[in-house]
Amino acid sequence: MPRIEGRVWKFGDHVNTDVIFPGKYTYTISEPAEMARHAMEDADPEFAQKVQTGDIIVAGENFGCGSSREQAVICLKAAGVAAIVARSFARIYYRNAINQGLPIVQCPEAVDAIESGDRVAIDLTGGVLEHAGKRYSFAPLPPEVSEILAAGGLVEYVKQKKGM
Q: Which tens digit of pLDDT belongs to each residue from 12-24?
């Protein structure tokens, strides 16, 4: 996976899937581009209008808790979010992110030092996050996960493996 560099949007602890993608749209919006217009609107009403391709979300503990809806990953990816860094992730959200091809990194030590608007660089293969001249280590993603992310998600990965 290539190096990811971007501007940070910082959020707190226990950001649940209804905050990431409001539950009221779950059964009325199905197109990723439309989902992106509502990404994080309950946490920051300006996020969807101001997020830029390549931006990175940094958050506290238990990011993505709540329901297992994939829309909470799809809306961020469609909005241009390049990666999510957090102290910890809800288990299902973590797997949904990988399945949808959205890189996620658990790096608790870096979270406190990073603020909204800062720039960070992430080396997923090397397990290093760089911010303000400091380097923070995290467990590199397993090769299988890196392959899924590089393919753009699990469906594309399977298609490539089957030669489709």
A: 999 999 999 998 9
Reported as a single tens digit per residue, the pLDDT across 52-79 is 999 999 999 999 999 888 999 999 999 9
The alpha carbon of 138 is separated from its chain's Cα centroid by a whole number of angstroms, namely 16
Phi, psi angle pair for 77, to nearest 5°: -65, -45
Q: Please name each of the domains of the chain with its CATH number.
A: 4-162 (3.20.19.10)
Cα–Cα distance between 128 and 119 in angstroms, integer?
14
- Alpha-carbon Rg for the chain in angstroms: 15
Query: pLDDT-based confidence at 1, cuts 50/70/90?
Result: low
Q: Read off the tokens for 98.
A: 């990988």
Contacts of 20 (CB under 8 A, 6+ apart): 39, 40, 43, 64, 72, 75, 76
Q: What does DSSP say about strands 56-59 and 4-10: parallel, antiparallel, or unpaired?
A: parallel
**Separation between Cα atoms, residue 129 and residue 4, nearest integer Å:** 9
